[in-house]
From TrEMBL:
Protein's UniProt name: MerR family transcriptional regulator
SUPFAM superfamilies, sorted: Putative DNA-binding domain
Keyword DNA-binding assigned: yes
One Pfam family recorded for the sequence: MerR_1
InterPro entries the record matches: DNA-bd_dom_put_sf, MerR-type_HTH_dom, MerR_fam
Keywords: DNA-binding
UniProt organism field: Rugosimonospora acidiphila
DNA-binding in keyword set: yes
Domain HTH merR-type: 1-68
Length: 120
């Protein structure tokens, strides 16, 4: 499929798809005219990349992780390593800390809203 169709099907901009390719996260063949030609499984790959970015991982970490994941279900492939598990556990702990920090910020905001509401 061409880049425009992949962008439409995944909701990701063509610019982002080119970036993913530059970073080695996504691969495309080239037609005789030089246009990108993505396989069907690129849809799952792009969705997985988006999920990993949303989780706060950076492109270098995603590049290390993707070869160890199956695109269709996100499960581990046969080449997943103990180091990958260690790295991902660290990422999960980082996300847990961020969630706790956000919950604390929300609690402080709730207190301010409550106090400000008394004066209204």
């Amino acid at each position: 499929m061409r880049i425009g169709e992949l962008a439409r099907r995944t909701g990701v901009s063509e610019r982002s798809l080119r970036y993913y390719e530059q970073q080695g996260l996504l691969a495309a063949d080239r037609t005789s005219g030089g246009q990108r030609d993505y396989p069907e499984q690129a849809v799952d790959r792009v969705v997985r990349i988006q999920e990993l970015f949303a989780a706060g991982l950076h492109s270098k970490k995603i590049g290390q992780l993707l070869p160890c994941m199956r695109d269709a279900d996100g499960g581990p492939s046969e080449i997943a390593t103990p180091q990958l598990v260690t790295d991902l556990t660290g990422e999960r702990e980082r996300i847990d800390r961020m969630i706790a920090d956000l919950a604390n910020s929300r609690d402080v905001l709730d207190e301010v809203i409550s106090a400000a509401s008394l004066g209204v």
